[in-house]
Each structure stands twice: as structure tokens, then as C-alpha cells.
Amino acid sequence: MKKVLVTGGAGFIGSNFLHYVLAHRDYGLCNLDALTYAGNLENLRSIEDDERYRFFKADIADAEAVDETLRQAKPDCIVHLAAESHVDRSVQDARPFVTTNLLGTQVLIDAAMRHGVERFVHVSTDEVYGSLGPEGRFSEDSPIQPNSPYSASKAGSDFLVRAAHHTHGFDTRITRCSNNYGPYQFPEKLIPLMVANAMDGEPLPVYGDGQNVRDWIHVEDHCRGILTVLEDGVAGEVYNLGGNAERSNIDVVRRLLELVGKGEELIRFVKDRPGHDQRYAIDGAKVERELGFTPNWTFEDGLAATVQWYRDNAEWTARVRSGAYQGYYEEQYGHLGSQ
Ligand code: NAD
Ligand code: TYD
């Protein structure tokens, strides 16, 4: 059985990835996560007693803690998702983005090479390519032109991963994915925030004129894409993953209101995000041609299923919004102490 260590497994994509892999493969899985505000072990409650799964609380920027985790976990492969991930937070304070996304990635690479890890998948973002005008899409050869502190720190981490391959011959692969949506997404991101506000009858804050465009992919498709690159990708390569679903923000918000059953009077156009990227769109031809990956979900079905999930799990959102979920680690793992 292969052993895969996932970093950031208590976050949105990481927890979906752990669920996805346990359902489709017989791999041993370790989850290394610092449990920042975005890390929520409640997302993993249904697998915490699975003997194929083990949790390690550690900060990727803490070399000793990472070393100790790898010593115990002995993974064959690493899928690296841990990151500070929210653009608006990076506008307010970029420092944690540098510490986690840059320093943390290097600490992890160094430890992985020392411990003989065979393969390292770095999960990155299309935001490293910057912003598009009305035409064109990002290919793997597009220039790296990040515009926010978040995307700049991700671009830097991509370069560190690339350098580890080039300099040390370490088997690394990079995925660059478009905007994800689906279950367990922290309600600071557009879709879960708007669903939660609409369900509560609160205003929906749309930045600027709402005409910015994102290319939406269901998180389950992203997880399948990461697994495809882990298993079938080529060392040193970059793979774009997209959803073939470009939508303007205002169109997404209007559709969400319909799905929740609320009216457009809840929409508020608010001050724009500083440096707001206009448009993202992924050209996914390479991963389709070379690894046979295409997304399965249509945006219409994926969005309806996602709204249904948030309706069925209103309690989850309420606990996240109140901060109550942060007591869960102590309740569940307090007896273990910290590493
Ligand atoms: P998230 O914010 O929901 O989760 C991040 C996780 O990383 C949390 O569990 C958090 O506790 C953990 N973490 C943060 N700092 C850490 C540290 N120093 N040490 C250990 N763990 C730490 O993020 P997400 O949306 O699930 O994104 C996961 C990855 O995918 C990120 O690398 C992000 O850049 C990338 N990505 C996200 C999207 C998207 O639409 N959400 C799109 C493309 C790529
Ligand atoms: P977000 O979910 O933060 O993802 P990203 O900035 O990484 O693409 O935002 C998606 C889009 O929605 C982006 O154009 C900004 C916009 N947005 C709003 O209009 N209002 C909001 O409250 C948020 C959080 C985002």
C-alpha cells in the first residue's frame, strides 16, 4: 500500500482530497495540518477512525515538527496543499503568506528530500498567471505575472518546487487549478459566503461591478485531477486544471439567489478589491491530451449540488462562522498533547 502525506488536509480541498482518495484507492494517508482558522477537523470526522488515516498537527514552516512528522509517517509521496489561501487576507497582511507559502514549502521540500520521499505534488493556482482581458486562456507556458500577495507567494512556491527538481533531481509535479467550489469551503470565499448570507437573508457583497470572471471547477474534479497527476504525471511538469466554466461573479450570485430561493434585493455592489484580477480562464488541453483528464461536473449541476450541501449542513457553516469548530481539536485530540 502506498503512503501519501497530504499537507493542509483539514482545509477545503485537502479534506475533499482525503475523502476522495480513501473512497477510490487503498492508500495509507497522513494529514499534516497546523489547524489555522481555515483548518477544520470536523471535515474529517467520518474518516478519523479509518485505520488507513492518521493526523499530525504541525506547521510546515516549523522544520523540527515537519522532520518529526515525516520520521513517523514515512510517506512515499507528498501532496502539498497547506497554504494561506485567501486573497483578501493577503491584502490585509501578507506576512503569513510569505511564512507558510514560501518558507513552509521550502521546509517541506528539504525534509521530503532528506526522508527519501519519492514524489511531491505541489498544488498551485491559475492566479500565478495574473489576469486576462476578454480573450485567451492560461496555458502552462503563459508568463508568471502574479498580482496579489497571495498569488505572488504561490508563484514563489512554484519556483522553489521547480528549482528542487532542476537542482536536485527531486520528482516534483505542479498543478495549477482554477477556482474551486463544493462542500467544506470556508465561508470567506465567494460561493459559500453568498450561500450563507442568502440563507440568512443578509446582504450579498459583490465587489466592483460584478463583471470579473472566474473559471469554476467542482472540488471533486480538482481532487481527481491531483490524483491523476500524482499517479500518471511526469516529473518536473506543470499541469493546468480547469472547469470549462467561465462565469462573471454577478451571474454566479444571481444563480445562487435563485437556488436558495431569495431575491436580488439582497445584492450590494461594494468597493472593489484592490488590484482585483479581471478574468481567469484555463486551457486544460495538456492534461487532457497527456493524462486523459477532463472535468466531469457541469457548473449548473455542481452549483445546485453545492447549495444543497450547504442547506443540509447549515450547522457546519454556523459552527465555522461562530468559531466553535476550533474547540474540536482539543475535544478530540487534546489528550495527545502537541508534537
Ligand atoms: P484552505 O484555506 O481551505 O485550507 C488550507 C489548509 O492549510 C488549512 O487546513 C490550514 O489549517 C492549513 N495550513 C495553513 N497554514 C499552514 C501551515 N503553516 N502549516 C500546516 N498547515 C497549514 O485552502 P484551500 O482552498 O483548501 O486550498 C488548498 C490549496 O489549493 C492551497 O495551496 C491553494 O493555494 C490551492 N488552490 C486553491 C484553490 C481554491 O479555489 N480554493 C484553487 C487553486 C489552488
Ligand atoms: P474568491 O472566492 O475570494 O476567490 P479568488 O479571489 O481567489 O478568485 O473570489 C472570487 C471572485 O468573487 C473574485 O472576483 C472576488 C469576488 N468576490 C466578491 O465579489 N465578493 C466577496 O465577498 C468575495 C469574497 C469575493
Distance, first to last CA: 26 Å
Please outline the major beta sheet.
Answer: 7 strands, parallel
Categorize the overall geometry: globular
Ligands bound here? nicotinamide-adenine-dinucleotide, thymidine-5'-diphosphate
CATH class of one domain: Alpha Beta
Per DSSP E runs of 2 or more residues, the count of β-strands stands at: 12
Taken as a percent bin, the fraction of beta residues is: 15-25%
CATH architectural arrangement of one domain: 3-Layer(aba) Sandwich
User: Order of strands side by side in the largest beta sheet?
Assistant: 3-2-1-4-5-6-10
- CATH topology of one domain, by name, is Rossmann fold
The CATH superfamily title of one domain? NAD(P)-binding Rossmann-like Domain
Order of helices and strands: EHEEHEHHEHEEHEEHEEHEHHHH
Helix share, percent: 40-55%
Describe the structure.
The protein has helices at residues 12-24, 63-73, 87-92, 95-114, 149-168, 190-200, 219-232, 249-260, 285-291, 299-312, 314-322, 328-333; strands spanning 3-7, 28-33, 53-57, 77-80, 119-125, 172-177, 179-181, 204-207, 213-218, 238-241, 246-248, 267-270. The chain has 339 residues and is of the alpha/beta class. It has a domain at 3-179 and 218-242 and 280-296 and 326-333: Rossmann fold (3-Layer(aba) Sandwich), CATH 3.40.50.720. The strands form 3 sheets. It has a 7-stranded parallel beta sheet with strand order 3-2-1-4-5-6-10, sandwiched between helices. It has a 3-stranded mixed beta sheet with strand order 7-9-11. The chain has a two-stranded parallel sheet with strand order 8-12. Strand 1, helix 1 and strand 2 (28-33) form a beta-alpha-beta unit. The protein is globular, with a radius of gyration of 19 Å. The structure holds nicotinamide-adenine-dinucleotide and thymidine-5'-diphosphate. Residues 7-8, 10-14, 33-36, 38-39, 59-61, 81-85, 100, 104, 123, 125, 154, 177, 179-180, 186 line the site of nicotinamide-adenine-dinucleotide. Thymidine-5'-diphosphate binds next to helix 6 and strand 8.
